[in-house]
Design goal:
Order of helices and strands: EEHHEEEHEEHHEEEHHEHEEHEEHEE
Strand content: 25-35%
Number of domains: 4
Number of strands: 17
Helix content: 40-55%
Distance between the termini: 88 Å
CATH architecture of the largest domain: 2-Layer Sandwich
Amino acid sequence: MMDIDFSAIITVTNYGRIQVDGSQSHNDTWQIEDREVIEWVKEQVNDLKQIKEGFITRKCLGKDFLDMLFVPIRYFENYFVFTFMCKKNGKLEQRDLRIAAFITEAIYENVMLDYEIVKERNYLQSIFDSTNSYIVTLDLNGTIIAANKNAGLLVGNQTALVGKGLGQLLSKDRYEQAKIIYQQVVFENRPVGGETEFVFGDGKKRYLSYTLSPMVDANKDVIGVVVLGVDVTKQKIYEKEIEQMRQYALLGEISAEVAHDIKNPLMGIRGCARLLQKKTEKQLSENYLSPIIQEVDRINQIVEQMLAYSKMTIDSSFKFVDVNALVDKCIDAVSFHKQFKQISIIKDYREELPFVEASDIRMQQAFMNILLNAIQAINDGGEIRIKTQRIYETDRIEVTIGDNGIGIDEREYGKIFDPFYTTKVRGTGLGLPIAKKVLDEIGGNISIQSKRGQGTMIKMEIPIGVKRNE
């Protein structure tokens, strides 16, 4: 082995800068400062640039002498690196130079290899963490051994995932389902995919499209499973909107047929019934003819709603609309309803709201439908609360209409705006879909909050100065 007092890695740039790294003293009685080494190196710079194989030189230190050994490591465009070793009052020989060159090369290669491995690992981890997908790796026991940063959102943070088993993260029912899929991937050595709802760490429910793929070693043996998840919540919303648009188009076709085949004959039936009323005794008229007229009127009302849903039959030009005045107009219009007298209307209007650009006819239809729903939801008297205000953050006017009626189940929220879906015995299922369509046309929004037995609140957001959809 070499007998030396000091060693270091030296970097010299083309601009004359010298840097000492990893310096280490091997003599407890003699300590060398980095600044001293830099001065010694400066004296040998020219030789270091020219001699590629390394060399030994001696320097006098008063009564003492210093043997210095230089071994080049790598020459780069703007700098070069070498190993420096020295021994005080002792001779370094060619044998020491060969040993130093061998050790230097081996150490440098290992350092560079480790650097490349770390660099590649960091690069892969960067890709791993940068993707918007949720990536989790599990071993054969179903324990998570790695997860990307985005996957941490599933439970709150990345650290909380690693080391956990599927049974700790999923409910009992979901775990049983996941275990079947997991075993299928492992034993059949093939990927399996699907879609599921998942409640994230922030408490929000989203739709995930997932793929479980086998992870194999060099011998093609399965050693684990990689789970790739993609958030498809927006896609699901778009699909629902497309389905609603398809239903809108279908209703347009149906309404045209209804108008031709039902509406005109209905008016004929009603006209005949009215004529018979005039020529029939009162008792007979009340028992038979009046119900006919009432039922014809009800059918005609349904037909009118269907027509209104697909195409307005009256003027629907856009103009500047006073929302407060429009709501009051709708309240006056529904005041004829037989249940209206038993209901208290509580108004909380924000004054001096800016006008909105919309069709007053269509907006009336939206408000009317919601008010009628609220009236029909109240059985034995109650109240309807109406509030208008400006939301400055989104530059919208918000109109809320709430009642203390029977309410609806939360599981029905997803269907409540679908055409023909109704919870009423004699409902058409078109009131809320019409309101939604009206607001969609001006870029607005409508949402519902309700609990069975505790009433319902409809919130509508109307843009100010919006460019309407043509």
